Structure formats: C-alpha cells, structure tokens
Amino acid sequence: MLLSLSLFLAVLPFKLAAAQSPCPPFPSPLPSASSLPSQSTLPDPFQYFTLKTRISSPAEWYTCRQPEIKRLLQEYQYGFYPDHSLETVKATRNGNTLNISITAGGKTGQFTATLSLPSGASASKKVPVMLAIGGVTNSVYNNAGIAVATIDYLNVAPDGTGKTGAFWSIYNGRDIGALTAWAWGVHRTLDAIELLVPEIDPTRTASIGCSRLGKAALAAGLFDSRILITVPMSSGIQGLGPYRYWQLSGQGENLENSKQGAPWWTSSVLSGFLNNSERLPYDSHFIAAAIAPRYMVIDEGQSDPYVNAKGTATVVYPAARVLYKWLGVEERIGMAIRTGGHCDPSGHANVLPFLQKVFFNTTISRDYNNLSPWSAVTTAYPWASNLPTGTATSIPSPTPSTTPIPSDTTLSPTPSDTITSISTTTTPTTSSTPTTTPISTNTTILPPANCHPKWAQCGGVSWTGSTCCVSGSTCMKSNEWFSQCL
Questions:
Q1: 29-61 pLDDT, tens per residue?
Q2: In which order are the strands placed within the sheet that holds 147-151?
Q3: DSSP 8-class letter at 45
Q4: What residues form DSSP beta bridges with 178?
Q5: Which domains does the chain have, with CATH numbers?
Q6: Would you say the pTM of this structure is higher than 0.85?
Q7: Where is the composition biased (Low complexity) (predicted)?
C-alpha cells in the first residue's frame, strides 16, 4: 500500500551525527568557467563543489549536497527559479479549460491549460495526471485512467528571445532560461488543478515533454517536489544528454550547437562553457540525482538522429542510478529504450507501464533497467567504484495523499541534526532570488523575419511559432509533433 510522498519525506529516518560540521558555504563570487578544473569523465556527485571532501551518508546528501547541486544548476544552467511564496495564483475553469493568473510584485501574467479526463473521473474517483508541456497522445493515458493537462507553454514564454507571455510579464529582466519558465508554467497549472479540478489527485503527478519540452519537463521535476514522476523524452543536451560523451550517437548534438542555436533555453551563464564543457562542475546525471528520491522514467529512441540517445542511456542513466541505488531507491529510476526516432508517439506507450506501477501499484513485467541494444559505459563514472560508506535504512514507499506538497525552494540549508533539504513548509528563503548583482538579459535576436536558427524547432502539432528557417537550413518534419531547422 502506498503512503503520501509528503509523509515519506517527513519520516526519512536519516540523522546527521551531532558532531558533523555545517554544510559548506556556496562560494562567492561564483567561480568563472575558466577557473574551474577540466574533467573528461562525469563529475562525482558525492564530492562538494569547491572542496576535496565527499559526503559520507544519505543524511548528508539530503541535507547538504543535494541542495548544493540544485544551487549549482541554477547558478550555471537554468537561472534562479522565482520564489513561489511571493506569488498569488488565481484560476477559473470553463469546462476543460483552465484560465490561470499569477501575480507577483504588482505584475500579472496569464495563460491557459487544457484538461483531458479519462472516463469515470470524479471527485470521488480521483485520477493521476500527466502535466504535458506540448501535445502528447492523450488516449494512451486516458485509456489507462490517467488525465492529461496540456499547458499552453508558448503563452507562458515564447521559444525565442522575445519577452512576452505570462512568465516574462512578471520576471522580465532576470537571467532565466525558457526551460525554467515553462517548468514554472507546469507548477502554476498544478496550483490551478489543486484549486479547481476535484477529479484529479494532485499528489499523483508526472511532468512530461519531448525534445526541448523534455528538457523543460526535467526542469519541472527538478524545481517542484510535488512532481512525483519526471518523464523527459528525447531531451538531449541541456536535458539528460551528456555534455561530455556527446559524440556517442545522433548528429553530434553538443553544448555549442544547442546553446548557440537556442540560447534562450537556459541562462546566459552557461555560454561561458562553450568549447569548454569539460570544465562544467556537473553533468546531466546531477539533474537526475537532484530529483531523487522521487521517480523518473527516461524515454529514448534508438534511431533518433537529433539527440545523443545512446549517451543518455549508457552514460547518464547508469551514473544516476548509482546514486539512486546508494539511497536505497534504485527502482525509482528507469530507462525506456524503444525503436523509432525523435519524439515518436510510441514513446507514450513506452513509459506507460512504469507510470502504472507508480500511480496504481500495478505489477509489471518490463525491466526498466534493460539498456539493450546498448550497455553501460562504466568508465564514464569511475567514482562509482568508491561509494561513501553510509548506507540507507529501509525507506517507505510514497503513496497518494490529499495533502499538497509545496515547492522546494530551499537552496542553502542551515545546520541541523535532521533532514531539511526537502521542506514541507512554504517559508520564503532570501537565497531563491539573488539580488546582489544586476541581472542581465539575453540580447541574442532571431534572424530577420523571425526565421529560426539551425537546430531550432520550426513546426509540429500545437506549434504556433514561425516555420521559417535561417538561410542555409530547411524546416524538416521528423514526425507530426516535431519539425526542426536542418
């Protein structure tokens, strides 16, 4: 029988030893890319950012290292997630359309989300929900008793340098990437569901998206602990594609062509690592590790020419699974490899059994640790042969509850003898939105006539942006959901 995730987090049995030192402070000023050491293999998630020391136990992971990783990812990649405790969310429901309004600092942004409910869903028979950034195959989930809430993400923030939409109506001027903005739209949609949709159980949730929207679904899981399952599909670089080992498969997607093709996806700070990605103090396995102990299932296509599917499956996933196993929750992360290419609709059936296992406690036969036709590249994470000696005590399984779990905005936990990194309070923290230095904006602009640069999306179901590509590239259809400038 499943217990609530909030209860699960509250009863984690780990304790820090009374004599343990406080968590190390985050370095200030932020180290520049050129000052960081170069490393060809995946960085050690157990070692502190600027120290030679490693954590010693799961307690220290949850209290010190995991919050440090979340801070690290916001400093160098995503930009800082806004402090939700300073926002007011209002919503109205018109049939299956949610109209969502968010106000903060005297500014208001608005967008919509569309519900697709399975037959029989009601206030007395609540169902789980897929929080979809962009279109998904609703019937796959509805037929399995799972609702879909599709976020109008382009009205949250455009897929370009323009500062329109709900997010930028409030936060224009901050160095925050569109992936974080779209993740914020997922979270505010979940707020509206909690307010107005009694047919949905808001504690059984998954964030899902594909390609650049898979990157955003990953950010949604990272920045809000209410997301029970994170489902990144074909997410590539700046998602779960490795910055190192980028050449294993696909067209050779790396930081350079991804960041230069769509610089607005992440903060401007990441540009400092162009042609120098081995100095990044993290790789994408850190993102997965920062989501533990919640669930994650990763969809990748063997024939995907646009992302490094093999690198995600054989380098990033097994490295992250080492951490999950060390925490005692290895069954909560899975790799779903399928035939087919980029954002193939078959990906939804590919991840469905994993979702059913978590949402409904269904017994499944599929092995989501099967990497066939590939195998793990263990030389990419040599630190796995020397794990910290602290071990996890038996951990209760999370289950649905009627108590909402607020967003985790804590970045720098205070010393304590109990776990504080995953909080069930909404006390604002001043570190969630730094104000010590001016926040720059990304000044890169699209080519004339709103034509998209090479590698950017230019079409697909629910796409409302331009279909024009810069001279020298053509908008090529991969499938009904995704076309790309090539």
A1: 999 999 999 999 999 999 999 998 999 999 999
A2: 88-94, 97-104, 107-116, 147-151, 127-133, 200-210, 229-233, 295-301, 333-338
A3: T
A4: none
A5: 74-385 (3.40.50.1820), 456-485 (no CATH)
A6: no
A7: 404-441
